[in-house]
Design a protein that fits this description.
The structure holds 3 protein chains of 3 kinds. By secondary structure, chain B is α/β, with parallel strands linked by helices. Chain B has 9 helices and 10 strands. By secondary structure, chain C is mostly helical. The chains are: A mainly alpha, B alpha/beta, C mainly alpha. The interface of A and B includes residues 213 and 223 of A.
C-alpha cells in the first residue's frame, strides 16, 4: 500500500510541471497585457513597470524565473493591485472559498449517497421518482438561475434567510450559497450511487449473500455498500474540484468575500500573476484530490493495489 | 426414506416489457434425505430458475407459483424475513461462477463466519474458528492464511471450495449446486465432485446438482431429472 | 462546464458496454434505435418541444412587431400586456421581452451548436488518430488529455474569454476546443477495438491509407457515442454560455442570450419578475428537453439486451 502511494505521488509531479508550463504560455501568448488600460501610460513609466515585473525579458527567461520562484513557494506579485502579492491575495480569499466548498461537499456527499441508496433499493417506486426529479432540477438548472430563484423565494418573499451579502461569521448568510453549490453535487453523487448500487444488487455475490439468509439489512450494509461506493469515490475528487471552481461563481452571485472576486477581476485586467497563481493553486488541489481518491480507491478495492 | 423437499406444480414466469415468459412450467419432483439428484438440461431449459425460485432469489420481474414443501413449510411465496431463517441454514446453494459469487471486497473469513453468526448465534471469534475448520475440511491448504485472504487472491478451484465450505457451515438438509464444475478446469472437476459426494454423505445432506453435462452426473447421482423448455420431460435413476 | 450534467460518467458507462458486448446482428442499428426511441414517450415529447422551440426562435422574430433592440418609449418597465402587443412585457429600456427572448434563444442555440460541433470534431479525430496509430503516439496523446483533465476548466474558459475578447462565435469555438477530452477518450477506446476487426484488416491489406481507413471504416462505427455525446454536450454549452454571459463575459448588448437576459432579470426580479421568468422558463425547458432526448438516445442505442 505504501509503495503504491509513493509511486502515485511520483507520477503526479511531471503532470504538475507540464500543466504549469501550459498555463504559463497560453496566458502569456494571449494578446494584451496588464498595462494596456483605458488611459495610456507614458512610455518611460511603462518601461519601468515592465522592467519591474520582468516583462521586458524574453518569455522563456520569464518562464524560468517564474518556475524558480514557484519552487520556493512564491507566486509573484500582483501586477494590478498595488502592494499585494498573489500569495497574500490567496491567503485573504481562499480560506473562505475552501470553507464554503468543504461545507457543501460534506453535506452534499452525505445526502447524495443516502438518497442514491434509497432510490436504488426502491427502484421504480415513488422515492426513486422523487429523487430523479430532484436530481434533474439540481443538475440542469444553472447555479446562477437557481441562486436567483432561491434568493427571490426564500430571501425576498418568505424572508427566511438573507438574500445575499456577507456578515462576518453569519451562518444564515451561508445557507443559500451552500445550497446552490451543494444541490448539483448531491444530485450527481446520488445518481452515481443509485446506478452502482443497482448494479451491485444484481451481482452474483449479492445473490450469494442473500442465499445465506443474512437478511436484507445485512446484505445491504455489509455486502453491497462497499463495492457500490467505488464509482462514487472516484467521483469525489473531481466533484470537490467542481465545487471549488463552482464556488467562484457562487461567490460572485451572492457577493461573498472569497477568491472568486479577485480571479474574475484579474482575468479581465490581465493580471498574469493572480490568474496564473490561482490557476496553479487549483491545479495542485485537483491533482492532490485525484491522488487521495486513488489511495482511497486502493483501500476499497484491494485488487488495484497490485497493479 | 423421508422426503426433505417436495415440489408441486412449480412455475416461474418473468414479466417483460409487454409480454410474459414462462421459464418453468409445472414441474413436480421430490428429494429424499441423503440422496443426490441430478437436474440435467440444455441452457435456457429453466433448471437454474426453478431452484433460484425455491431459494427466493429470482430477479425482480420473476414470479413463482406452486409449492415447494420442506416438511410442512412452503418456501414459495414465503415472507423474506421468515425465508432468511431457513436459507443458508437448512437449504443452501452454490453458484455456477466462483469468480464472481464471492464478494471481492470482504475477506474470506468474514464471508464464512457471518453465516454462523446469523444462524447459530456464534460470537465472531468462535465463528471464525469454525470457518477455518471448515476450510480445512474442504481441502484448502493453510486455512488460517486463506481465511485472511481476499477472493481475488485465490484460484477458481479454491474459490469453489470456499463456496462449498460456506454452504455447508450450518450442515444444511439440502444443498443445491448450480453447475458447480462448469467454470473449473477438467482436472479439478473430478476432485470437486468427489468432495461434494464425501461431504454430503458425512453430513447426510441431500444434494441437487444442476448441470448440462451428463458426464458430470453419471458417477455421483442417484436419480436424475431431465428438463427441456421449462418442463421436466424425464425422470429416472442414474444407473438405469 | 465540463461534466456538470454528469455526461462523462453516462458516456463512459456506455462505452464500457460497447466494449464488452459484440455488435448486434440482424436489424440495422438505426432502424432498431429509432423504434426504441419512439417507444420512449418522454423523449418523443421532448423532441417535439425542442423542434417547436427551435422553429419559434428562428421564424418567430419575423412575426413579432418589435425588434429585439427596438425601444418603445411609451412602454418602459411594463408587465405582460396583450393590448400594447408586448406579450412578455418590456424591460427597463422599453424593449419587447418576447423579441429579446426569441433572439436570446437563437443566440444560445447557435453558440451551442457551433461549440458542440467543434468539440465533437476534435474529439473524434484526436481519439481516432491516437487509437489507430497506438503505441507511443497513443501514449503521448492520451497523456496530454490526462494533463488537460487536471486543468481547472472554468478558469480556462475565463482565460479564453480574455484571449478572444467579445467575439461570441470565436469564444465558443474556444469553449468547444476544450470540451472534447471525454469524447477523445471514448473514440480512442472504440478505435482500439474496431481496428482489430477483420474488415479493417481487409482494407489495410487492400492498400488503403490510414486516413481513408479512419474516415471510411472507423468513424462510421462511432455513431452511437457521437450522437449521445452531442445531445448531452449541447445543454452543457448552453449552461456554460449563459454562465459566462451572467458574469458579463459572454454575448454583449444589444445582442443577447438566455444567460444575459437572466442575469439582467435576476437583480430586479423582485419588482419585475417577468424579466427573469420568461428567459428562465425557456432555458429550463430547453435543458430538460435536451437531457431527456440524450437519455432516450442512450437507451435506444444501448447495445445491451437488444
Amino acid at each position: 500500500m505504501l509503495s503504491y502511494a509513493f509511486r502515485r505521488v511520483l507520477s503526479a509531479i511531471p503532470i504538475a510541471l507540464i500543466a504549469v508550463t501550459v498555463c504559463f504560455f497560453i496566458l502569456r501568448l494571449a494578446p494584451g497585457g496588464p498595462f494596456d488600460g483605458e488611459r495610456a501610460l507614458p512610455p518611460t513609466v511603462l518601461a519601468n513597470l515592465r522592467a519591474h515585473y520582468n516583462l521586458d525579458q524574453p518569455l522563456v527567461v520569464q518562464y524560468f524565473i517564474y518556475v524558480w520562484r514557484l519552487l520556493h513557494g512564491d507566486l509573484g506579485p500582483s501586477m494590478v493591485i498595488d502592494g499585494f502579492n498573489v500569495s497574500q491575495l490567496i491567503a485573504i480569499g481562499f480560506p473562505f472559498t475552501l470553507t464554503m466548498a468543504l461545507c457543501a461537499f460534506v453535506i452534499a456527499t452525505a445526502i447524495g449517497m443516502l438518497a442514491g441508496m434509497v432510490a436504488a433499493v426502491y427502484q421504480n417506486k415513488w422515492p426513486d421518482y422523487v429523487l430523479v426529479l430532484a436530481v434533474m432540477i439540481g443538475v440542469l438548472i444553472p447555479n446562477f438561475l437557481m441562486a436567483a430563484l432561491l434568493q427571490l423565494w426564500f430571501g425576498v418573499y418568505l424572508k427566511w434567510v438573507p438574500a445575499g451579502g456577507w456578515v462576518n461569521g453569519s451562518l444564515m448568510h451561508l445557507i443559500l450559497p451552500v445550497t446552490v453549490l451543494a444541490w448539483p453535487h448531491a444530485g450527481r453523487i446520488s445518481r452515481l450511487m443509485r446506478g452502482s448500487m443497482i448494479e451491485v444488487l444484481g451481482t452474483n455475490y449479492v445473490r450469494t449473500a442473500r442465499s445465506k439468509g443474512l437478511g436484507e439489512r445485512l446484505v445491504l450494509s455489509r455486502h453491497a455498500i462497499k463495492p457500490a461506493l467505488l464509482p462514487v469515490v472516484s467521483y469525489l475528487g473531481p466533484g470537490l474540484s467542481y465545487l471549488l471552481t463552482g464556488s467562484l461563481a457562487v461567490e460572485q452571485i451572492f457577493g461573498l468575500p472569497g477568491i472568486g472576486k479577485y480571479f474574475v477581476t484579474a482575468a479581465l485586467n490581465r493580471d498574469y500573476g493572480v490568474v496564473l497563481g490561482t490557476t496553479i493553486l487549483y491545479m495542485f488541489i485537483i491533482l492532490a484530490l485525484n491522488l487521495i481518491v486513488d489511495l482511497v480507491y486502493a483501500w476499497l478495492d484491494p485488487k488495484v493495489r497490485y497493479r | 426414506m423421508t422426503k426433505v423437499l417436495s415440489v408441486e406444480d412449480l412455475s416461474v414466469t418473468f414479466a417483460l416489457h409487454e409480454s410474459e415468459v414462462r421459464a418453468v412450467n409445472n414441474i413436480n419432483f421430490s428429494l429424499e434425505a441423503g440422496e443426490t439428484l441430478a437436474v440435467v438440461g440444455e441452457s435456457g431449459s429453466g433448471k437454474s430458475q426453478a431452484f433460484l425460485s425455491i431459494m427466493g432469489l429470482l430477479a425482480k420481474n420473476g414470479r413463482t407459483s406452486g409449492k415447494a414443501m420442506m416438511g410442512d413449510i412452503n418456501l414459495v411465496g414465503m415472507e423474506k424475513s421468515r425465508l432468511d431463517r431457513i436459507r443458508g441454514k437448512d437449504i443452501a446453494m452454490i453458484f455456477q461462477d466462483p469468480m464472481t459469487s464471492l464478494n471481492p471486497s470482504l475477506k474470506v473469513k468474514t464471508q464464512l463466519s457471518e453465516v454462523l453468526v446469523k444462524h447459530r448465534g456464534f460470537d465472531k471469534a468462535k465463528a471464525e474458528r469454525a470457518a477455518v475448520e471448515m476450510l480445512e475440511r474442504v481441502g484448502i491448504p493453510e486455512p488460517v492464511k486463506r481465511a485472511n485472504a481476499f477472493p481475488h487472491e485465490m484460484s477458481g478451484g479454491m474459490r469453489q471450495r470456499v463456496m462449498i465450505a460456506m454452504a455447508l457451515l450450518c450442515q444444511p438438509k439440502i444443498l443445491i449446486a448450480d453447475e458447480p464444475t462448469t467454470a473449473l478446469d477438467v482436472t479439478v472437476q473430478a476432485q470437486m465432485l468427489d468432495l461434494f459426494k464425501s461431504l454430503t454423505d458425512d453430513f447426510g445432506t441431500s444434494l441437487v446438482i444442476i448441470t448440462h453435462d451428463l458426464g458430470v452426473v453419471a458417477g455421483v447421482a442417484d436419480r436424475m431429472m431431465v428438463m427441456y423448455g421449462g418442463r421436466a420431460v424425464e425422470k429416472g435413476t442414474a444407473r438405469a | 462546464m465540463a461534466g456538470i450534467t454528469g455526461k462523462d460518467q453516462v458516456l463512459t458507462a456506455y462505452a464500457n458496454k460497447l466494449a464488452t458486448l459484440d455488435a448486434p446482428k440482424g436489424r440495422s442499428l438505426t432502424q432498431d434505435a429509432v423504434r426504441r426511441l419512439v417507444r420512449n414517450k418522454m423523449a418523443v415529447l421532448s423532441i417535439f418541444v425542442l423542434v417547436a422551440i427551435v422553429l419559434v426562435a428562428f421564424i418567430g422574430p419575423y412575426f413579432v412587431t418589435w425588434g429585439y433592440s427596438q425601444v418603445d418609449w411609451g412602454q418602459i418597465r411594463k408587465p405582460p400586456n396583450f393590448d400594447t402587443g408586448h406579450y412578455f412585457g418590456t424591460d427597463q429600456n422599453g424593449r419587447d421581452m418576447l423579441a429579446r427572448v426569441l433572439q436570446g434563444t437563437q443566440m444560445s442555440l447557435i453558440v451551442a451548436a457551433v461549440a458542440t460541433f467543434v468539440s465533437v470534431s476534435i474529439g473524434v479525430v484526436y481519439g481516432a488518430v491516437a487509437g489507430y496509430f497506438g503505441g507511443r503516439v497513443d501514449a503521448i496523446m492520451m497523456r496530454i488529455v490526462d494533463i488537460m483533465y487536471a486543468l481547472p476548466y472554468i478558469l480556462f474558459v475565463i482565460i479564453l474569454v480574455v484571449m478572444f475578447g467579445r467575439n461570441p462565435v470565436l469564444l465558443f469555438v474556444g469553449i468547444g476546443a476544450i470540451e472534447w477530452l471525454t469524447m477523445a477518450r471514448i473514440v480512442r477506446g472504440q478505435t482500439l477495438s474496431i481496428k482489430e476487426k477483420e474488415f479493417v484488416e481487409a482494407a489495410r491489406a487492400g492498400g488503403a491509407k490510414p486516413f481513408t481507413i479512419i474516415m471510411r471504416h472507423i468513424v462510421p462505427n462511432l455513431t452511437g457515442p457521437v450522437v449521445i455525446y452531442a445531445t448531452l454536450t449541447i445543454p452543457e454549452i448552453i449552461i456554460a454560455e449563459s454562465f459566462l454571459s451572467y458574469l458579463g463575459l459572454g454575448v454583449q448588448e444589444p445582442q443577447t442570450s438566455l444567460g444575459t437576459l437572466i442575469s439582467a432579470g435576476a437583480p430586479v426580479a423582485e419588482v419585475m419578475p417577468w424579466l427573469l421568468l420568461a428567459p428562465a422558463v425557456v432555458l429550463v425547458t430547453l435543458l430538460f428537453c435536451l437531457t431527456y432526448i440524450g437519455d432516450g438516445l442512450r437507451d435506444a442505442l444501448d447495445p445491451k439486451d437488444r
